Every structure is written in C-alpha cells, then in structure tokens.
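All the exercises in this workshop are built on plain-text protein records. A record pairs a protein's sequence with a compact description of its fold. Read left to right, the backbone structure tokens trace the chain's path through space. Once this layout is familiar, the rest of the handout is easier to follow. Here is such a record, shown just as it appears in the course material:
>
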Amino acid sequence: MATTPQTGAPRELLDSPHLASGIKKATTRLMPMLVILYFVAFLDRTNVGFAEDGLQIDRGISAGAFALGAGIFFIGYALFEIPSNLLLTRYGARFWLARIAISWGLVASAFAFTTNDTMFVILRFLLGVTEAGLFPGVIMFLAEWFPNKRRVQLFAIFYLAQPFSQMLGAPLSGGLISFGEQFTPWLGWQVMFFVEGMLAVVAGIAAFYLLTDSPQKARFLTAEEKSAMHAVMEHENAVKDADGPRGIWPAMVSGKVWYFTAIYFCLQVAVYGTTFYLPQQVSGLIGRDVGWEVGLVTAVPWAVGLFACYYVGKHADTLRRRRDWGTVAFVLTGAAILLSAWAGAHGYSLLGIVAITVAVSAFLCAGPISWSFPTAFLAGAAAATGIGLINSIGNLGGFVAPVMRTAINDVVPTESGTWGVVSLGVLAFVAAAMMWATRFFTARADALLADTPAADGAAETRP
C-alpha cells in the first residue's frame, strides 16, 4: 500500500472515488450559500464608501468620524471573534452562521436612519460585533469538510464573494443611490443601506435551511461518501493534533499562529485601505461624481480578480505553489498600490485603473493561500481559537488602514492623497517576505499534498 511521506497515511484516502464524488457534491450543495453569505457581508461592511458624500452633506458626518466609523467596525469584530467561534463549535455552523447574518443585516439596515457622528460610529461598532465569527466560522467549517489538498480551491471559491460583491455590489450600491430617491421618499444612500441590510436577513434565513453541520449529517451523501470523507478528515485531524497546539490557551500563545496573524494583518491593511476608498479613487481618476458610472468602473478590478482568484485557488494544490504564488501575489499587491498612487498624482487615469485592477486581483489570490497554512496545523478548540485570533487581530488592519491613510494625508497633504495610498502598499512587501520565509517551517499535514518538504527543498521544524 502506498503511503504519504512522514505520516504513514494511505494514499487511498485521497485517491478514493467516493471521496472525490463526496467533495463534488458538498461543493455544489454548500459553496453557493457560503458565497452568498460572504457576498452580503462584504457588501454591508464596504458600502459605506458609496454613502460617504451623502452622509457628509445630508447628516453632517465629519471626515474624522467617517474614518473612525469605517475602522471601528474591526474593533467590535476583533473583540467578539473568538467567543463567536467557540459558540459556533457548540451550536453548529448551520444555526450560528444564520444567526450572525440575521443580526448584522438588522444593524446594517439601521444605517438608513443615521442622524449624526455618534450614531454612525456606534452602528459601525455594532456591525462588527454582529458580524464577528462569520469569516473564521466558514474557514473552520470548510476545514472540517474538505481535505488539505483541496482546501485552497474551496477557500478561493469562498473568496469569490469579494469580487462578486464589488463587481455586482458596486453598480447595485451606485444604482440604489442614483435612483433610490426617485422612487421612494428616502434619500438614495438610505435606500442603499436598508435594501442591502435586508439582503443579509434573507440570506441568514436561507442558510439555516441549506447548510449542513458535517458530512455525517449530510443527507445528500451516500454511506460510502460519508465514510470516505470521515476517514480522510479524521486522519488529518489526528496529524494536526500531534503537530499543532492543543486547546484554547496553547493556540493563543503559539508562535506559528501569531506569525500568520501578522501576515493576515498586512494583507488586510492593503485590502481595506484600497476597498474603503476605491469609489473615491476611481471618481478622481475618471473625473465623475460617485454614482452609477463610478460603480460600473469600480466593478472592473473585481471582475478581473474573480478569474485570477479562481485560477490560482484551483492550481495551488502543492506546498511549493502555495508559498511561491502567495509571495508573488503580495509583491504584486504592494507594487500595484504604489503604481496607482503615482498614476493618480500624475493624472494617468487608465494606468491608475490598471494598477488598481492588478492590486485587487493579487490580494484576492493571496487570501485563500494565506489561510491554507494555519488550517494545516489547527484542529478542534485550537482551530476555533487560532483561526479566530488570526482573523480578529489580522482584521484590525481594516481599522488601521483608513486611520493611517487619513493621518498620513493630513501630515503630507496632496491633491490626490498620494502618500496615504503609498502607505497601504508598504506592508504588502512585509507580508511577501514572511510568506517566502514559510519555506523554513511546515506542518506534518502538508505531507498530504502532492509535494513534500524534502522535495520542496524546505528545512522543516516542528512547533
């Protein structure tokens, strides 16, 4: 019987036709609902960029309050991330993910009734509190359903919600703002907030009926498919238990967990620093007010990123590819952000749009790859804690990014805000160096991939 190096795992676990058919069925049944959940979540956390002008003009929301509100979402998110993850393990993904979506949808809709700075900031904080646990909960959910070799592909499909959200959500948000007040007694930005918040409530109700907590509870799988999926995941979990931290506290103090937290933090600074201000940056590049036209142009980078993310996720099935492509993705993210700042400062509109497109495509590819590393050595309570910690602290980059960008633009003011944009790209290069350095440590579960540390030329150490 052939075995995988270092683990003694039979290759038949991964080569089983029942495993392949089970994964195919699970992908078809589960991924659309998960993508819809993240689609609406990403839409509701970033649509504030489309309402900035309206909030300032109609409600007097200051630039400082907007920057604080845009970022404080991640404070509430970080505080409740790990508790939410632990509650998910207790109540099950189906119930808990549905609860999260309904809760944040109600808060998101309440933005339609914002009257002042204080209310805006409080609602942004509550939006973070109610959404906490969605993203890491799905990451945990997928890590329990799908083996390591296929995981990046599934993470990439889940990540497609981001480009879908911006590709479809940008013109949706712009359209609701442009046309909403023509057909309702509300202002356009109020219509946008209310409608898009209600989408989350509907998605949460649907998730309760369409998701399944585990392969063993899945009615759409045959007994043979359940057995094959259970066998491979049990083996991987046993390897993780022997290789990684055990329990809540060991996960919180694990050096490897904090290492990937730092990588994810750098990524999120680039992601949200770009996303929050993308409508305004595109508006400046094309010389149009934020609305329908800006929404359409803003959708272009996400449309290209959709294909890039899917392609890389599908082919990143070896340790070497994940590390090398992840490093390149971070380098491209940083370089493209710097180029977009230069193009904006010198009035090169087309070059600026191209640079933004490359940046968005690159950081979309980097995300799923980044998550493949910690899920290779975290299981059980350690996974709930470690994945929650990585996501919560890493997502503080979403708080730091707008505040940092605004502060730097205040210190070094320019008409196009060049230096604020430049600051976002710097940390992407730090993440690139850290991703490249993962060659010096691996997890035993990585031996279930097609290549091995020995074949990869990596110097392996154990936590």
About this structure: The chain is about 80% helix and 0% strand. Residues 17-46 form the longest helix (30 residues).
